[in-house]
Amino acid sequence: MIKEFKDFIAKGNVMDLAVGIIIGAAFTAIVSSLVGDLINPIIGLILGGVDFTSMYVVLSGTVPAGAGLQVARDAGAAVFAYGAFITAVINFLIIAFVVFLLVKAVNRLKGEKPAAPEAPKGPTELDVLKDILVALKK
Question: Which range marks the domain in which residue 32 is found?
Fold first, then answer.
C-alpha cells in the first residue's frame, strides 16, 4: 500500500498540480499587490479619487453619516456593498488578463504554436478497393 501511495505521488500529474498550486498562491500575492497598490489607485485617480470599496447602501440599521464600509458593518447594519463587488470584478478581470499574458509567454518560450488545421483526409481503404473493383470490371 505504501508503494502504491509513493507511485501515486510520484506521478507527473500530481507533482505538476502541487507545483501549480504553490506557484499560484505566490502569484496571487503578486497580482493582488499589482491590483491593490498600482492599478486601483490609478483607476481611482482617473475617476476623480473614487474608492469603490467604500461604496455601499444601508439596507437596515443606522450608520453615522460618511462612515466607511467597515464602520457600517461593525455597527451591525445590513449593507449592500456594491463597491466591493465592483472592485472584485475589476480584480478578476485584471488577474485573468495577467494569467492570459503569462500563459501566452510560457507557450512562446516553449515554442508551441497554435494548432494547425487538420489536413484533409484521403480516401479510405474501402474507397480504394471500390475503385480497384470498378477498374477490374472494365
Answer: 1-50
Domain co-membership, 71 together with 40 = no
- The answer to whether residues 94 and 34 touch, using CB atoms and an 8 Å cutoff, is yes
Distance CA 82, CA 36 (A): 17
Work out how many domains the chain is built from and give that number: 2
Q: Does the model's pTM come out above 0.70?
A: no
The three cell numbers locating residue 106: 510560457
Amino acid at 71: V
**37 and 86 inside one domain:** no
Question: Does residue 32 sit in the same domain as residue 69?
Answer: no
**Residue 39 and residue 34: Cα distance in Å, rounded?**
6
Q: Which three cell numbers stand for residue 108?
A: 512562446
Compute CA distances 131 → 106, 117, 120, 121, whole Å: 49, 28, 20, 17
Question: Look-up: residue for cell 481611482?
Answer: 44
Say if residue 22 is in the same domain as residue 67: no
Instruction: For residue range 113-122, list pLDDT tens digits in order.
Output: 666 677 777 8
CA 115 to chain centre: 22
